[in-house]
C-alpha cells in the first residue's frame, strides 16, 4: 500500500535530515553502518525523529502505544507496582523513554487511588522536545503530583522501587548483517542519487563475535544468505539499568520474541520495521527523520544480559497475559454500569491491547528484579521464561 502523501513541512524536514546523514556518510569515507544510520535518523540533535518536534504518538502521529490506547494499561501496571511498593521502604519509580507523558500521568493517578504513590517518579528521556511535552502534560493532568516528577539525563546511581520502559528497547539502533560464503558482512548505508542505498563490507571483529555468540546459543551456524539484525547496544543498556536497580523490579514491554524464533532459518530478512502515519513497512532508508525506525527485540538477549548483571527474571509473558494475570478484571469493575457508548469504547481498547492479532501476542513483558521482592501476579499466568 502506498504511503500517505507528504505535507511541505515534513518533506522539507526529511530533506534536511537526508542532507545531514549524507554529510555523515561523506565524512565517514562513503559508508556508515546501518546502526549509525538508524541513530542519526532517530536521534540527530534537533533533526532526528525523536529529537525534533513533530507529533509521533496517537491518531495524529505515526503509531499508537499501549499507554496511548487506554488507561487500562497503566491501571494494571499500577497494581503490579503497588504490590511491590507495599514491601519496599520509600519506593521510587524510574520511567525510561516516556513518550508523550501519558503513562506517567495515568500511573500516578491510579497509584494515588491505590494509596501507593512513589516518593519520586524520575524520567530518563533522550529527546529534549519530548521532555518538554511530558512536563506540560504532567503539569496539566496531575498538578498536585507534579512535585514528585523529575527528569534525569542518565541512569540514576541507585533506585529502590520500580523501573518501567514501554517500547524503548525497540528504538535502540541495530546492526544488520548477512552470512556470505566468504564470511559475515555488515550491512551499511551509502549515498545514491539524492538518497541512500544498502552496501556490504566485511563485518568488524566485534560484530562477528556477537553473531558467533548467537550461533553458539542456537547450537548451529546461521545459513549462507541469512540476513538479520543484532542490537549490540542492548547488553550495555541492560547493564546500566541493572546498575540502577538496588532493590525492586523492572518491567520492560516491547514487541519481540526469543532468540530461537528471532534467528529461525525461515525468518531471514530481519526485524526492522518503520512506522509512518499508521502505515508499517520495511524501508528504513526512506523518509529519514519523519518516520519511526524500530527493530523487534531479542528477549533472550535481554534475559542473558540481566542475569549477567545479577538480576533475577520474574517472568516473561505476552502483553495479554500480563494484563489478564495482573488484574484486568478488577480494572474493569463497574463496566456494566457505564453508558453503552463508554462500554463500546472501553471494550474496543481492551481488544486492541489483548487480542493476538493486535498487541496481545507480539508484545511481551519481561520482569526483572533484584533482592527479595514478591513475584508480581501479572507473571503467574502462562510464564514463558523457559522459552528464552
Ligand atoms: C516508541 S517511544 C515510546 C514512548 C512511550 N514509552 C509510550 O509507550 O508511549 C520511545 C521513547 O523512548 C525514548 N528513547 C529512545 N531511546 C532512548 C534511550 N536510550 N534512553 C531514554 N529514552 C529513549 C524516545 O525519545 C521516546 O520517548
Distance between the termini: 35 Å
Order of helices and strands: HEHHHEHEHEEEEEHEHEHEEEEHEHHHE
The overall pLDDT average reads 94
Ligand catalogue? S-adenosylmethionine
**How would a crystallographer describe the biggest sheet?**
8 strands, mixed
DSSP strand tally: 16
Strand residue percentage = 15-25%
Q: Given the C-alpha coordinates, what overall shape results?
A: globular
- Show unreliable segments: none
Given helix and strand content, the structural type is alpha/beta
Helix content: 25-40%
Number of distinct helices: 13
Round the Cα radius of gyration to an integer and report it: 21 Å
Task: Describe this protein's structure.
The protein is about 35% helix and about 25% strand. It has 13 helices and 16 strands. It has helices spanning about 10-25, 35-45, 65-70, 70-85, 100-115, 130-140, 205-220, 235-245, 260, 300-310, 320-325, 330, 340-355, and strands at about 30-35, 90-95, 120-125, 150, 160-165, 175-180, 185-190, 195-200, 225-230, 245-255, 270-275, 280, 290-295, 295-300, 310-320, 365-370. Strands 2, 3, 4, 5, 10, 14, 15 and 16 form an eight-stranded mixed sheet that branches. Strands 1, 6, 7, 8 and 9 form a five-stranded antiparallel sheet that branches. Helix 5 links the parallel strand 2 (about 90-95) and strand 3 (about 120-125). The model has no long low-confidence stretch (mean pLDDT about 95). S-adenosylmethionine (SAM) binds near residues 65, 68, 99, 126 and 168.
Amino acid at each position: 500500500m502506498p504511503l500517505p502523501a507528504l505535507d511541505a513541512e515534513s518533506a522539507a524536514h526529511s530533506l534536511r535530515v537526508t542532507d545531514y546523514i549524507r554529510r555523515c556518510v561523506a565524512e565517514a569515507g562513503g559508508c556508515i553502518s546501518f546502526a549509525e544510520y538508524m541513530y542519526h535518523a532517530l536521534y540527530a540533535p534537533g533533526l532526528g525523529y525523536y529529537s525534533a518536534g513533530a507529533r509521533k504518538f496517537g491518531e495524529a502521529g505515526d503509531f499508537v502505544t499501549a499507554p496511548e490506547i487506554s488507561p487500562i494499561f497503566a491501571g494494571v501496571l499500577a497494581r503490579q507496582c503497588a504490590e511491590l511498593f507495599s514491601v519496599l521502604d520509600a519506593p521510587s519509580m524510574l520511567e525510561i523513554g516516556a513518550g508523550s507523558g501519558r503513562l506517567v500521568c495515568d500511573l500516578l493517578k491510579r497509584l494515588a487511588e491505590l494509596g501507593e504513590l512513589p516518593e519520586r517518579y524520575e524520567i530518563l528521556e533522550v529527546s529534549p522536545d519530548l521532555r518538554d511535552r511530558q512536563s506540560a502534560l504532567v503539569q496539566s493532568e496531575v498538578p498536585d503530583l507534579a512535585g514528585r516528577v523529575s527528569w534525569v539525563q542518565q541512569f540514576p546511581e541507585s533506585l529502590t522501587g520500580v523501573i518501567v520502559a514501554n517500547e524503548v528497547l525497540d528504538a535502540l539502533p541495530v546492526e544488520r548483517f548477512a552470512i556470505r560464503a566468504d564470511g559475515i558482512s555488515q550491512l551499511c548505508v551509502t549515498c545514491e542519487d539524492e538518497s541512500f542505498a544498502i552496501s556490504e563490507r566485511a563485518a568488524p571483529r566485534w560484530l562477528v563475535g556477537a553473531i558467533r555468540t548467537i550461533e553458539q546459543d542456537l547450537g548451529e551456524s546461521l545459513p549462507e544468505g541469512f540476513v538479520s539484525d543484532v542490537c549490540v547496544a542492548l547488553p550495555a543498556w541492560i547493564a546500566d539499568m541493572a546498575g540502577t536497580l538496588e532493590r525492586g523490579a523492572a518491567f520492560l514491554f516491547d514487541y519481540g520474541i526469543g532468540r530461537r524464533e528471532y534467528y529461525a532459518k525461515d525468518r531471514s530478512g530481519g526485524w526492522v520495521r518503520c512506522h509512518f502515519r499508521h502505515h508499517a513497512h520495511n524501508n528504513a532508508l526512506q523518509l529519514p527523520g519523519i518516520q519511526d525506525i524500530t527493530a523487534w527485540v531479542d528477549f533472550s538477549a535481554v534475559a542473558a544480559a540481566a542475569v549477567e548483571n545479577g538480576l533475577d527474571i520474574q517472568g516473561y509473558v505476552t502483553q495479554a497475559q500480563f494484563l489478564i494475570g495482573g488484574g484486568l478484571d478488577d480494572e474493569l469493575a463497574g463496566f456494566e454500569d457505564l453508558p453503552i457508548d463508554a462500554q463500546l469504547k472501553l471494550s474496543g481498547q481492551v481488544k486492541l491491547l489483548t487480542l493476538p492479532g493486535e498487541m496481545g501476542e507480539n508484545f511481551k513483558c519481561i520482569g526483572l528484579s533484584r533482592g527479595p521482592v514478591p513475584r508480581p501476579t501479572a507473571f503467574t499466568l502462562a510464564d514463558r521464561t523457559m522459552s528464552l
